[in-house]
Known about the structure:
Among the domains are: 7-329, Rossmann fold (3-Layer(aba) Sandwich); 360-547, Rossmann fold (3-Layer(aba) Sandwich), CATH 3.40.50; 791-902, GMP Synthetase, Chain A, domain 3. The chain is built from 31 helices and 38 strands. An eight-stranded mixed sheet has the order 1-4-6-5-7-8-9-10, sandwiched between helices. An eight-stranded mixed sheet has the order 17-16-15-13-14-18-19-30, with helices on both faces. Strands 12-11-21-20-22-23-24 form a seven-stranded mixed sheet, sandwiched between helices. Helix 16 (420-432) links the parallel strand 13 (411-415) and strand 14 (435-438). Helix 4 (151-162) crosses helix 10 and helix 24 crosses helix 26.
Amino acid sequence: MRSDLPRVAASTAPATLPPPLPGLDPAWSRLVTVPGGTDRTGGTDHPDRTWHLLDTAGSLDALGATPVGTLLCVHGNPTWSYLWRSVAAQTLAVARAGGPAWRVVAVDQLDMGFSERTGVQHRLADRVRDLGALTDVLGLTGPVVTVGHDWGGVVSLGWAVDHPGLLAGVVTCNTAVHQPEDAPIPAPLRLALRPQVLGRGTVLTPAFLETTLAIAHPRLDRPVADAYRAPYRGAARRGGIGGFVADIPVDAAHPSAAELDRIATGVAALRVPALLVWGPRDPVFLERYLDDLTARLPHADVHRFEGAGHLLPDDADVAGTLTDWLGDHLPDGRAPAGGEPRLPTDVPDHTADASRPLWAALEDQRDADGPALVEMAAPGGPRTVSWRLLARRVDEVAVGLADLGVRHGDRVSLLVTPGADLTAVLYACVRIGAVVVVADAGLGLRGLTRAVRGARPDWIVGALPGLAAARALGWPGRRIATVALPAPARRALRVEHSLAEVARRGARLLASGRTLPAAPSPEDPAAVLFTSGSTGPAKGVVYTHRQLAAVRDVLAAQYDVGVGTGLVAGFAPFALLGPALGARSVAPDMDVTAPRTLTARAVADAVRAVDATVVFLSPAALANVVATAGDLTATDREALAGVRLFLSAGAPVPEALLAAATELMPNASAHTPYGMTEGLLMTDVDLDGVRAAGDTSGSGICVGVPAAGVRVRIAPLDDLGVPSGTPTDAAGVTGEIVVAAPHVRDHYDRLWRTNRASRQGVDDPRGHRTGDVGHLDADGRLWVEGRLQHVVATARGVVTPVGPEQRIEAVDGVGRVGVAGVGPTGTQQVVAVVETVPPVRRPGLATASLATAVRAAAGVPLAAVLVVPVLPTDIRHNSKVDRARLSRWATSVLGGARMVRP
C-alpha cells in the first residue's frame, strides 16, 4: 500500500456471501477461489484468492435456457457487483420470454464488495491479470461481452484486449482509458488524491463512498444505498477503496501509467461491436473521456442518458438498453449476417438531386446585386445584403475558417441570432464540410448548456451573450466572436478571433490564389439541429448534405418558392433556408426566443423590405400578429395584401386562427404544414382543405395529405396506449404516426436508444416514428390527436387529448385547454385544465356551472375540471400545451397539495 494510506488499509478478511439485499437474488451469489502461483514476471508467489461474484448460470439452467454468451461485468470504485443486479434481472427476463439467453458474471474485484480482503495494493495490471485468472477458473469459452463502469471499465477493457479470441463485444459506462496531458485530473479526484485527504476520505471515514452515493440522479432509495454500503462497513473493509484511488495514474511516472497506455492503445485496435453509454452529470468522468473513447472506437454506438450521472446503471435503464443492443448486434452471440434494410418496393425513392448542394442557388446568383437578405433588427436600422456580397462573404469566411484549422467533420456551434452573420457562417461551414450545430436560444440557458455540451463542438461562433454563457458554463470549443471585442473581454471570454478577422484573413488568401477546400460528399453530416425540448431534453438531429438538400427541394416543390420569391421567415430554420431556395429573405423584428413578441406591424415592415409574397410564422407568433392587427395602418394593410402564401407550423393551428390571419392577408392561401425537426415538411393542408375536411371538433386537427415523396402510416395503439402491430395506411385507425421521406433526418446524435426506438418496426430506412398520435381518413388526410406520451389509458380504453380539448374550447368562457391523465396506466382518470376568458386570478376548481358545461362538451368522463390563469407551454413555440407538466400538477393538487400554478 502507499505510505499515505492508513495502516488499516492493509487489513485482511475472507470472502463472504452478501446478506439478503433488495433486487439481489441469493441464487446468483457464489464464491470462487483462484489458485495461487507466481506473478506474470515469474518472481513472486501469491496465495489463493477467493472472489465473490454474481452468476446467473444456475438461473438460466433452471429455465432450460442455453446461454449464447457471457456478459462479464466489472464494477468500479467504490461500488461492487450489486451495480449490475438490473442487468442480471433483465437478461433473465429476456430469456424467460424466449429471447437470447446471456449468462451474467458480475465480479467483486479483490478487496472490494464481498471478495477477499488481501491486505496488498493491487495495481491496474494486477487487476487485469487477476480478472483473467478468474475467467480461466470459470472456464469462459466465449463469446464474451465485457461490461464495465468507472475504473472497472478500464479493467474490463484490459481483459478485452488480452482475450481477442473470446471477445464478441465491449460495453462501457462512464469510464476513461486516457488522461489528456493538457487537461487536469477532474477536481473531485484531485481532492481525493491529496495526501492529507486520501486515507481519511477513503478508508478511515466513508466520505468517498457517501459522496458517490449522494450524486445519484435520482437519489437512491435508502435500502439501495444501504446495500451499496453493506460490504464497506468499518475502516478495515474500505482499504480497497483507498487503494483504487491511489492507483489512479496522475502522470507518466505513476506505476499504473504504462498499463493504462497499453490498454488505451489496444482499445483502438478492437473491431468488435461496441456500446458506450454515458451519464453527462458525472463530475469525475467528464465528456472529454467519452470523446476519447469514440475516437478510439469510431464504430461504437453511443447513448447519452441526459440527466443521468456517475451511477449510471442506477440512474438510467442501462439494462434495457444493453439487452436491446445485444439483440440487434449479437442476437445469438455473433453479429448477424445481412446488410441495411432495403426500400419497400411499393414506395418511389424521391432522392434529392445530389448535384445540387445546399449552396447551389447562392452560387448561381453570386453576380446579382439584388437583395439576398434583410436584417430588420440591425443596429442603425434595416440592413440589406446583396447576393454578390453574401456569396463573397461566404467564400471569405469559408477560406478563413479553413486556414484557422476548421476541418472537414469539425463541429461548429452557432450561437448567433438569425441575420447576415449567421447565414454567412452557416453556409461557409457547410461549404467546407464542417458540421453546424444549431440550438434555439428559446431552449433557455439550461437547455442550451445541455445541447452544446452534448454536441461537443470543436468551435463556437457567437455573439456576446452566447460567448459569455459559454465561458461561464464551461461549454467546449474554441471561440470566434461575431463582433469586435476589446482585448480584456477577449481574454476573459477566451475568444481567439472575430468574424471580421476571419473574413479578412479569407479575403487575403483568396486574393493570393487560395481556393476553397474540396466540397463535402452528399452523405457527409452537414448539421446537428436541436429539437424544441417540449417533450423532454432537446435532442440533436443529424442531417446529411443529401437530406438538407431534400428539405430544400420538397419546400421548393410544395410551395413554389425559389429565385424571385420574397420570404418573411419568423421561424429560424426557414430564415436559414432562404439562400438555399434562392429566395430573398427577411427575419422580422422580434425576440426569436419569444415568438409572441412579433406584431402585425413588424410583419408588414418585413413584407415591404423584400416585397415578400410568402410569410412563415409559428402559431404563437401568428396569434399575436392577429391580436395586434388593430395597430396596422392603411399602408401596412396594402403591403400585407401582396402576400400570396402564408404558412404556420410547429404546433397544431386552429381553423379560427388561420381564418383570422387571412383577414390580414386577404390574397394569401393559408397553409399549415405538419412536420418536426426530424422532418420539416411531412404533410400540408390549406384553409380550404381544413374546411372541406368537415367539422374538426373531436376528430383531432387535420394536417392534410402527404407532401411529395412522403409516406404516412399509423402504428395502432393497444389498450395501454402503446403502439403495437404493423404500421398501416388504413383509414380510421388511431395510433402513432410513422413517416418516411428522403428529407427525414439521418439519426439522433449520440442517442442510440432513441434512434432505435424511432425506427422500431419501420421497414423503410428513411422512416421515423414521430411520437405523435393520429389517424388517416378515407381521403388519405392525416389528423393529429396529440403526443404519444400524453395518451390517457383509462379502464374504458385510450383517450387522445386533442379531441376533448377541441370540444371543450367551444364552451363559452373557455380559452385554451389541456387534457391530462392521473393515476396508474390502464386505470387513469381524465382531467381537464382550463384557461378561462377572462382569466382567473389563481388556480382552483372550476365553478359548478363551468364544470357542468365542460363535462357535457368533453365527450369523455372527467374526474375533475380545474382552472388556471395560464396553461404551461413549450419553450420554443410558446404554443404547445405542456400536458406532462399538467398531469404532474393535477396529480399533486388532487392528492391534496397546495393549489399553486402549474
